[in-house]
Design goal:
By secondary structure, this protein is α+β, with helices and mostly antiparallel strands. 45% of the residues lie in helices and 15% in strands. It folds into 3 domains: 89 residues, Immunoglobulin-like (Sandwich), CATH 2.60.40.10; 127 residues, Alpha Horseshoe (Serine Threonine Protein Phosphatase 5, Tetratricopeptide repeat); 61 residues, no CATH class. The chain contains 12 helices and 7 strands. The strands form 2 sheets. Strands 3-2-5-6 form a 4-stranded antiparallel β-sheet, with no helix packed on it. The protein has a 3-stranded mixed β-sheet with strand order 4-1-7, with no helix packed on it.
Length: 340
């Protein structure tokens, strides 16, 4: 049922209530006001993906929160439907210095693209994706040089050039797992999913302990609605990194796509337990699961949690609308839910 025309009379049978929060659009600025999308990637200084603990926060120049979320497992983020005004961007990650930047989007076009590179704190250990892989020590010099050139091109968002260098790197040494994984990233940004999938599978074949390849492949499968394959890959990744909350988060998406809402709930809750500061959007995803299960009180509670975390977040307007509809339909007792 489309949320735009959703009406909930008190006599409505619960099973008919199947609104999906996950597809709510971003809050739309005032009528006639131009909007812009902000897209980007978060990496370490040398272009690697940070495996966990990354949080991106966008506020107005006056300090009002606009959105706060974690990037995808490939380090990508995108905020759409933003008003063309100045913003302040803050990116934090465990073991890295906070990154802050003033963004004046009032003079930009329809989309602004941004690369964020984080600097490690002094004395911190390398993040998991920065640790040498099983195949790194065997890489010949020629392949390594091409890989470094590819990373620089990827950093400059020259994806075709990055692809060419990564392809030369894996041609010189096919089992270069790190290069295969970054080749997949370059291919994905150019919408070449089949070849990206092949590169990631090769990375896993060569180095089963390189968890970046599992998370990126799971993300790729989820994006293509290949949920069963995503679940299998992510479960395999969990065997190598059982405390990585992103695997559980992506598994929640996969199980939701498969219609297994009990399992989706379990995975989202596990992700929440492993990450002390999970992305606020996890409450929206849980609310959507509970709506599918007709657990309206739980859905309402998750919506409240989302609004506490992001009162001006991208789902805030539609979440408030849906909460009011739940109340007016008599499907929840707002007072009793709030007291829990």
């Amino acid at each position: 049922m489309n949320w735009r025309c959703l009406r909930l009379p008190a006599t409505l049978h619960a099973s008919a209530f199947c609104c999906s929060l996950l597809w709510f659009p971003w809050a739309v600025p005032a009528s006639g006001q131009q909007t812009i999308a902000l897209e980007g990637w978060v990496h370490t200084e040398n272009g690697r993906t940070i495996s966990s603990g990354v949080m991106i926060r966008l506020t107005t120049a006056e300090g009002l929160a606009v959105v706060q979320q974690s990037p995808s497992s490939a380090g990508q983020f995108e905020f759409g439907g933003l008003a063309k005004i100045p913003y302040h961007l803050t990116v934090t990650a465990d073991g890295f210095q906070a990154y802050e930047q003033e963004l004046d989007l009032s003079r930009s076009g329809d989309k602004t693209i941004l690369n964020v590179y984080l600097t490690p704190l002094r004395g911190t250990k390398q993040a998991g994706s920065e640790l040498p892989t099983l195949t790194d020590s065997k890489v010949p010099r020629k392949a390594r040089k091409e890989f470094e050139k590819g990373k620089r091109a990827l950093r400059d968002r020259n994806f075709s050039e990055a692809q060419a260098h990564f392809e030369k790197a894996v041609e010189a040494y096919p089992c270069y797992a790190r290069a295969q994984t970054d080749l997949a990233l370059a291919l994905t940004t150019q919408r070449d999913r089949p070849h990206a999938e092949a590169a990631l599978k090769k990375a896993i074949e060569c180095n089963p302990d390189f968890v970046d390849a599992y998370s990126q492949l799971g993300w790729l499968f989820n994006g293509g609605k290949r949920f069963s394959e995503s679940a299998r890959v992510l479960q395999e990744g969990l065997r190598h990194s059982p405390s990585a909350w992103q695997f559980y988060y992506q598994l929640g998406i996969a199980h939701y796509g498969l219609g297994d809402y009990n399992k989706a709930e379990e995975e989202y809750l596990k992700a929440e337990s492993l990450n002390p500061e999970p992305p606020a959007e996890i409450h929206v995803k849980l609310a959507d699961v509970y709506l599918k299960k007709n657990a309206f009180d739980k859905a309402y509670s998750e919506m409240e949690s989302y609004l506490r975390a992001e009162p001006s977040g991208r789902f805030a307007v539609k979440v408030r609308e849906l909460m009011k509809q739940l109340e007016s339909a008599g499907l929840v007792d707002a007072a009793s839910v709030s007291k829990r």
